[in-house]
Amino acid sequence: MLGQGFVSAAAIAASVLFILSLGGLSNQEKAKRAVWYGIVGMAVAVFFTAFGPGIGGYWWLIPMMIIGAVIGTYMAGKVEMTEMPQLVAALHSFVGLAAVFVAWSADLERRRVLAARAADGVMHEFSAFAALVATKAPDELTFLQIEVVLGIFIGAVTFTGSVIAFGKLAGKVDGKPRQLPGGHLLNAAAAVLSLLLAVMYLNGAGFWTLIVLAALAFFIGYHLIMGIGGADMPVVVSMLNSYSGWAAAAIGFTLGNDLLIVTGALVGSSGAILSYIMCKAMNRNFVNVILGGFGGSTGPAAEIEGEQVAIDASGVASALNDADSVVIVPGYGMAVAQAQSAVSDLVRKLRAAGKNVRFGIHPVAGRLPGHMNVLLAEAKVPYDIVLEMDEINDDFATTDVVIVIGSNDIVNPAAEEDPNSPIAGMPVLKVWEAKQVFICKRGQGTGYSGIENPLFFKENSRMFYGDARDSLNALLPLVD
Amino acid sequence: MRIGAPKETSRGEARVALTPESAKQIQKLGHECLIETGAGLAAGFNDDAYRDAGVTVVDSADTLWQDAEVVIKVREPSDTEAARLRQGQTLIAFFWPAQNEALLEKCKAQGASVIAMDMVPRISRAQKMDALSSMANIAGYRAVIEAGNNFGRFFTGQVTAAGKVPPAKVLVIGAGVAGLAAIGTATSLGAVVRAFDVRPEVSEQIESMGAEFLFLDFEDSQDGSESGGYASPSSPEFREKQLECFREQAPDVDIVITTALIPGRPAPKLWLEDMVAAMKPGSVIVDLAAEKGGNCDLTQPDERIVSDNGVIVIGYTDFPSRMATQSSLLYATNIRHMLTDLTPEKDGVINHNMDDDVIRGATVTHQGEVTFPPPPPKVKAIAAAKPKKKEKEPTPEEKKATEASAFKAQTKRQVGILAIGGALMLLLGQVAPASFMQHFIVFVLACFIGFQVIWKVSHSLHTPLMAVTNAISGIIILGAILQIGSGSAVVSVLAAISVLIATINIVGGFLVTRRMLAMFQKS
Asked: B75 burial class (0-12, 13-18, 19+ CB within 10 angstroms)?
């Protein structure tokens, strides 16, 4: 058994390693080292806590960890890069569920200690967490209860929310926003009820209050995320990321463990910042995204003149052969069609021909922050030609050819030109400034927001209809 | 239907309305193609080339006019040709109905439908059949080539062992299609190009082609969108200002290319005698408006003259015809697109749909009636230019003031937040036990560090960031570890499950992050 001193030192070391790990993600090369900081930090934290004072139950602990590790390794090895959003959402749900369980256990332990005290007034020999609870003063116990309530509530919302987000991202649940009749009133009612239960619990009601509380929070998580559409998932996933952190921090307070608090706070703020970045990229506020739907537009959208002109692979190929600079703008459609390796092949060929090929990535492209970057990296596209919106937006005017693959709203000029458009003011990639734009798209439908895209009707736009991967594969042999 | 292209009869016309390539496309529409023997010779297409493309070569013009149900031509018909028109026949050609009223009457009397390629409305859908633009494009290019042919120096500046050569300075007046093409050609030959146009909204186009826009500071500038993208006559004051600007340029420039035309009017005189006199000997003026009287005082249509001070003034009117192969290819394609619109079902049946904006606009006689001028098209040619926002350059004092006030506001906000935060802490400290406050300090500091650190994370690594925070949030395993040794069975089971799922989280999260990061490669 290691002494408390060891455990505390380990906690400090792990906290520092976690901070270094997150800080290291500022660039791609450092990141490869940074992930090791995280791994070592976690190993230190788990090892010293597990072999610290007052810990038992190794017969449970070790087998469970081994099974968990095996499952985790299998999952991480098997997952496709296009399935990353689902995986991240699924993992969030685990943290949420664990938080609920741990908070429940904490309250059970509290009750056990109180029951023992009331029975004979003598201090028993408690093991594990119960021993800690036994030392707490009454006002500390009240705060413990508040923390338990928070832990359960946040954890439960995270759990069902993540499960639904997983379902939507994996296509197992319909991606369209859908709510029970009553809409957000139901959520509000559930929240008020939860508050009521929390007050009852604090005033000494039984353990059942915590179970009902969890059930209500489960409902809120489920119903809230059901009401949010597929394209808003980047915000949802980062929000759940944030919640999983806050849940961990709440548990940290309950258990009086600083390492949990620090880590939870780090994760919580990370998710919060990501949500903020995503919302800003859509020019919508957080509440608007979470409550679902676009704000009412202020007037009729400007009418679009012209027609969508289709083009075939040979037309695109000849334009590419003539071009000196090419920018590719991928969107969720590329992930759906699994077209990233076809894109990569095309880029390799164009670069071999001495053309300047770059990628323009909108912050909300895809279903996860940074989703496109990961897909392109998987297809071996070098990251230094993959640029952010702000880095590339001024270069479109001097670009010969832009290929838009499966993105729609993020290249919609209405955001800039039509103040009545529902997406007015959203920062977009100004692809229409290029000499020629080819839009790789399945059919004539509108994007997620249901807004017609004037880009498709511009004179320098040509529609390259068809499945993105098939289209690009047809294009490849024609490019030289 | 049988589509026939006769040999052009007007003197010096080398173009032809049907090329072997366009014939193949027209046949795909279900039509049959005829051509008069030798019609394409001047443009570089011999009869055999047409035969290979499946075109029937007809011996004489008479037979062709008789056999063809649709006659496609370049120039407007001569009197003899007009006499050959018959009831129900369709003629597609440049017609200039406003200038050729007598001819129009005659065609009407013959009962033929005439589609004038020069009347195709300027809307985006009709661009593919805008023959005026494709011809103007060629004229612009050719104007520069003719100028170069007559100009005694290089276009591009060079420093050679035999001395330094300054670049030629080219002034292009009128930035329509021809003007822009001339700018493009001259810049790619290496000349220094300036351009002028009465429509300020074309300045962007001029600059995009690599020329400098001569800006005229004048209140009442024109809005070209009102007149379908064409220029309209300008006020006398404006004209004065404009000429003053040209007078300044005259001694400096080596080559002047004028392309200024106002639809339905004689060309405005913009390059006056005194400007020609001010130019250096050996300079060249190419007047693309020669057919309409010319922009230059000295221009003689179809002639190349040399002024007293040795300035060459070129007034050719047949620039497209001088590049007959290229212009025939483009014109034939324009005609082919027109036929495509006329044959919507691709079944070889012409559907002369007078409800179609483009076909209606271009048709000048139909079913024994003159249908010129057409009603205005339903779609406006080009969107009205949006008034540009005038952003005032703030003075240094103003800048300083705004910066100072922004700084003040920020300070106020930050102090406000800190004060509120501090007050809340104090309140919390009143009720919360000391042990809680200790943890709370740690929590607040960790949030701060989190915010500082995460802002620096690169956008492209957001997915790995989520995966790694995911793995780290598996730290909740500590909570489970602390509880697993409990004496209560329920607690132990719950904790055990928590350990299991948290471990999946940790291991899965880290491994997948590693996998992702390993994929990021530098080129």
From this structure: middle
Considering the domain boundaries, does residue A197 fall inside one?
yes
Give CA–CA dist B402/A189, Å, rounded.
Answer: 47
Domain count, chain B: 3
Do residues B148 and B277 both lie within one domain? Answer: yes
Shared-domain flag, residues A73 and A120: no
Short-list A414, A398, A475, A389, CA closest to A440: A475
Q: Are residues B103 and B180 in the same domain?
A: no
Indicate if A152 and A271 belong to the same structural domain.
yes
pLDDT in tens, B116-159: 998 888 777 788 888 888 899 999 999 999 999 999 999 988 88
Residues B272, B158 share a domain: yes
Q: Is residue B422 part of a domain?
A: no
Q: At what angle do helices A28-50 and A4-23 cross, to 10 degrees?
A: 160
Q: Under 8 Å CB-to-CB from A341, ≥6 apart: which residues?
A: A379
Q: Is residue B470 one of the residues assigned to a domain?
A: yes
Query: What integer pLDDT is reported at residue B195 of this predicted model?
Result: 92
Q: Which of B3, B1, B4 is nearest to B61 (CA)?
A: B4
A369 at interface of B, judged by CB pairs closer than 8 A = yes
Residue of B208, B455, B462 to mutate, interface with A, max A Cβ within 10 Å: B462
Q: What is the pLDDT of residue B70?
A: 92
Q: Cα torsion at A392, A396, A402, A405 (round to 10°)?
A: 40
Mark whether B211 and B288 lie in a shared domain: yes
What is the helix (H) or strand (E) element at residue A144, kind and residue range? helix A138-170
- Is residue B359 over pLDDT 70? yes
- Length of chain B equals 523
Q: Do A128 and B496 touch (CB under 8 A)?
A: no
CA–CA separation, A163 and A179 (whole Å)? 16
pTM above 0.80, yes or no: no
SS3 A180: coil
User: At residue A294, does pLDDT exceed 80?
Assistant: no
Residues A185-231 have pLDDT tens digits of 888 888 899 999 988 888 887 888 899 999 999 999 898 888 887 66
Contact B446 A371 (CB under 8 A): no
Count residue pairs from A and B with Cβ separation < 8 A. Answer: 398
Q: Which of B470, B485, B508 sits opposite A75 (nearest CB)?
A: B508
Assess A206–B contact: CB distance below 8 Å, yes or no: no
On whether both B268 and B335 belong to a single domain, the answer is no
Q: Which of B475, B484, B509 sits opposite A263 (nearest CB)?
A: B475
Around Cβ A467, how many Cβ atoms within 10 Å? 18
Q: Which of A69, A306, A383 is nearest residue B507 as measured by Cβ atoms?
A: A69
- A148 and A279 together in one domain: yes
What does residue A410 show for φ and ψ, rounded to 5 degrees?
-75, -5
Chain-chain contact of B472 with A18 (C-beta, under 8 angstroms): yes
Partners of residue A38 in chain B, C-beta under 8 Å: 468, 471-472, 510, 513
Q: How far is CA B53 from CA A161, A311, B18, B24, B346, in A?
A: 66, 25, 11, 6, 19
Please report residues of A whose CB lies closer than 8 A to that of B501: 68, 94, 97-98
B329 plus B275 within the same structural domain: no
Pairwise CB contact (< 8 Å): A369 & B465 = yes
Is B178 among the domain residues? yes
Residue A65 sits in which domain range?
Answer: 1-78
At B4, phi and psi to the nearest 5? -125, 140
Shared domain for B56 and B166, answered yes or no, is: no
Q: Is the ipTM of this complex over 0.90?
A: no
User: Could you tell me the residue range of the domain that residue B361 belongs to?
Assistant: 2-128+323-370
Q: Quick one: DSSP state of residue A173?
A: S
C-alpha A68, offset from chain centre: 22
